Amino acid sequence: MLARISVAVNSSSLRCVRLGWLPLLVLPLLPACTRVTAYQRERLAHPTMTPTFGESDALTHVRAVQEGAIGGELGASSGCGCN
Amino acid sequence: MLSRRRPPLVGLRCFVAWALVPAVGLGAGEPPSRGVTTEVHGEVAGYTDSDAVTVFTPSVGVKVRDTGSGWSAGGSYLVDVVSAASVDIVSTATERWTEVRHAGGLNAGYKPYDLGATLSGSVSREPDYLSLTGGGRFDWDLSQKTVTPALGYAFTHDTAGRTGTPFSVYSLETDRHALNTDVALVLDRSTTLNLGADLVFEVGNQEKPYRYVPLFAEDVAPKVVPGMSVETVNLMRLPGRTAERLPTTRQRYAASARLAQRHAHDTLVAKERVYTDSWGLKATTTDLRWVFDLTRQLQLWPALRVHFQSGVSFWKLAYVGSVATDGSLGVPRYRTGDRELSPLGEGTLGAGMRLNLGSPSDPSAFAITFLADGMLTRYSEALFIKQRFGAFTAAQLEVKL
C-alpha cells in the first residue's frame, strides 16, 4: 500500500499535497500494527471488544450533565477490524 | 500577466485521488457475504442522588444493515423524566419540578468497501429547551483493516427559554461546531488501541435562564465556606437577584485513548481522556472495565471510573458585589453557580452482567444486560453542597433479527 501511495505522489503535482496531507497523519502509525489475517481475528471480534459494550446512552447523558468535560467517544463506527 | 491560480477543483480532485488509492488497492478482495440484519435495542434506566434528583429514562433503537451493499440505517428515541428539588432549585425559592425530555436520532451510512460515510441528525426537546444536531463522519480501513482513521463533524443549535414563554419572546441561543478525529489500531491478535481528539467551538449565550448567583459584600465574602447552607447564604448575601453570566465563546479540546485486550476468558478495557478549554477548565477521566466470561452465556464485570477537574478561571465560591449610593448593584463581569464548572472529583464503582440467550451458533443474538453504578462526587469550592451520592441502574435488551 505504501508503494501505491508513493506512485500517487509521483504522478500528482505538488499541489496535491496541499489538500492531500491528511492521510500522512496515519502513515507513521502503520508500522506499529501487526498484520492480523481474517482467521486470526476471533478474539478481536468478540462482542466485549466493541466500544459500545457495557455502555448506556442514559449514563452518558448523566455524566455529560454532571462533568465539565466532553469528548472521548472513541471508535463509534470502527474498532476491531473484524467486519 | 499570466494567472498562476490553480484551476478550480484541482485540490479536491487530488484529495479524492489520495483517498481512492488505498480504497481501491485494499478493497480488491471479495465483498462480505450479502445479508440484511436488523438489530433492536431497548433500555430502561434510572438515576437518583442525594441532591433530590431522579431521572427515569426508557429508550429504544433499531439498526438495519446490509453487509453486501454496505448500507446501514438506524434510529433511536428516548424519554427522560426528570424530577428535581436540588439545592440550586431550593436556593431560588422554587419548588420541586418534573420535566419530560424527548430525544430522537436518525443515521444512515454507506461503506461498500474500505471507505465509509455516515450522516446523522438528532433532536432533543424539553418544554424550555430545543437542541438540533446534524453531522457526518468518514472512516477508512487501511492496511487490511488494522488501521482505521475517522473524521467527523457535527453542528448543534441549542435554544433555551422559559417554560410557558414562546422562544420568539425570550430565548438564549448557542451554536456548537464539533470536530472529531480518531484512529482505531489493531495492535495484535487480541489487542486494539483507539486514539482520538475532539475540538469543539461554542458561540452563544450558555447561561441557564433560571440560575441566579448570590453576591456578597467584600468584607463578608472571606467568611463564606464550602457547603454553607441555603439559609446561612441568604442571611449573608447582598439583597436582590443576579442572573448568571458566562463568556459567549468557548473552545474545548479533548484527547482520548482506549485500549482493549481480549484474553481466553476475559476482556480488559482501559480508557483515558484529558480535557482543557478556553474557560480554564482542565480535567482527566479514567475508565477501567474487566469483563469475565463465567460461561459462554454469562459475563460479569466490575467497572471503575475516576474524574477530576479544576474549575473555570472565573469560578468563585463567593462572588463579590457592591451596592452604590443610588442603590444599584455592581456585579462581576462573569459569574456562575453551575457546579459543573467548579473544581470537583468524582469516583464511580460499577458492575454489569450480560446474559447471552441466543442460539448456540450466535448466543449474543438475544442478550439482556444489567448495569449498576454508584457515584460519589465531592465539591471542594461550592455553596450549598459538599458531596453527592448517586446511583444509576439500567436493564438493556438486544435482539438480532
Can you walk me through this structure?
The complex is a heterodimer of chains A (83) and B (401). Chain A is mainly α and 83 residues long. Helix content of chain A is 31%, strand content 0%. Chain A is elongated, with a radius of gyration of 19 Å. Chain A starts with a helix and ends in a 17-residue tail after the last helix. Chain B has 401 residues and is mainly beta. Chain B has three helices and 22 strands. Chain B has helices at 10-26, 87-91, 230-236; strands spanning 36-49, 53-66, 71-84, 97-110, 115-126, 129-140, 147-160, 172-188, 191-204, 212-213, 215-216, 242-243, 249-262, 266-277, 282-293, 298-309, 319-320, 322-323, 329-330, 344-356, 366-379, 387-400. In chain B, strands 1-2-3-4-5-6-7-8-9-13-14-15-16-20-21-22 form a 16-stranded antiparallel barrel. Chain B has a two-stranded antiparallel sheet with strand order 10-12. Chain B is elongated, with a radius of gyration of 25 Å. Classes of the chains: A mainly alpha (83), B mainly beta (401).
Give average pLDDT of chain A, whole number.
Answer: 66
Give the terminus-to-terminus CA distance of chain A.
20 Å
Low-confidence sequence ranges of chain B: 1-33
Instruction: Determine the fraction of residues in helical runs of chain B and give it as a percent range.
Output: under 10%
Strand percentage of chain B, roughly? over 45%
Which two chains have the most extensive interface, and how many residues on each?
A-B, 62 and 96 residues
**Strand content bin of chain A:** under 5%
Total DSSP helices of chain A: 3
Let me know the number of strands of chain B.
22
Broad shape of chain B: elongated
Tell me the structural class of chain A.
mainly alpha
Extract low-pLDDT stretches of chain A: 1-19, 76-83
